[in-house]
Every structure is written in structure tokens, then in C-alpha cells.
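Final report, closing paragraph on structural work. Over the funding period we assembled a curated collection of sequence-structure pairs, and we close with a single example.
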Amino acid sequence: MEISPTPPVAAKPAKPAISADFDTFLKMLTVQMTNQDPMNPIESADYAVQLATFSGVEQQVKTNQLLGDLAAQGSLSAMAQLAGWVGQEARVAAPVRYEGKPVTLSPQPAAMADRAVLVVKSAKGDVVAREDIPLDGKPYQWLGADAAGNPLPTGTYRLEVQSMADDTVIRTDPVESYARIVEARRGPEGAILVLDGGIEVKATDVTALRSA
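Its predicted structure, as stored:
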């Protein structure tokens, strides 16, 4: 005689945490009512307070879940908008990736300066070039040359502008430059843009966009 194998028992779906807690609360309430002192029964108002308290907690948990869902949807919507930025050039104060082609800068010398000097530093922080730039604040084409006028090697550089008055540095500022956006992604502090050369910046730090 052949015995058919016992069909597997389907696992019961797990209850949400708030439902499980509510079941536990009801069991505790039942035990409390069963074991109360018949000579000194618990007031019905006390039961009402306990039920109201648990109901308030349950509603707060559901509200927090709803807010979390709305925040996630908003984040996805923002990412969808940022997808249109990929392929464009962003203006941002960040390290510059130089690959032999001119880089558009947007230096902003101090208003009281009588001279502005562009300082170019290597990724290690060494000064590799200095050159005077106009004071008008208009876009400036940096050719990527060293102090002798020779092209710098391919790499990442940090640029800053020194505003001077009477041969004294009165202010030093990072220089904004344009770089192509190759990726947009979510980070722990918001949307992150990845520029040419793997340079990462916050989307909120971008001050302008233009077609590549």
C-alpha cells in the first residue's frame, strides 16, 4: 500500500507588528479582567484610557509609515527630474578634471580687489601654477598651463582665486567651473551628481546648468 506524502502546511503570513502588538494588548487586557479583585474591580474608565492610549500609538505608527512612503515618493520624483541633468554641464565649486582641453571657469573676485590671481593646485595640494585673471567676473577659459606655459598633465586640480589689493591678499575663494554630469544618484544626504573624472558633488551645490 502506497502512502501519499503529507502535503506541506502553508506558512501563515506574518502579521504586521502593530497587529501583533494589538493582539498581545487584548490578551493582557483579558487576563487583567479575569484576575481582577471582585471586591475592588477595575473602573471601566481605566479600560477606556488604556484602549485610547493604544489606539493613539497605533495611529501615530500608521502616520509615520505614511510620511515615510510620501518621502520616498518625493525622493524618486526628484531623481526623475535629475535624470534630465545627465549629459549637461553643471557649474559648481569643485575640483577640476583637466584632460588637455580648456575648462570654463566662473571666478568671482572681491569687489574691492585691484588684482585677481588664479591659483592652481595639484591633487596633493601643491601649487603648480599661478596666473592673473580679469576682475570683471565673466567666464574665463583656463588653458591648463603651468608657470612656464606648458600644458599640465592630465589629472584633477583644485582652483582658487586670490583677490588682492595693494599687493595684499584680502580674500581667497574656490572657483566655480563647468563639468559634464555623467550620473545622478541618491546619497545619505540627498541627490549626488557624478562629474567627469569621477568627481562627486551635491545637487544642491550646482549654481547653473548648460548644454554640453
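The chain has a mean pLDDT of 79. The longest helix spans residues 44-82. We thank the funder for supporting this effort.
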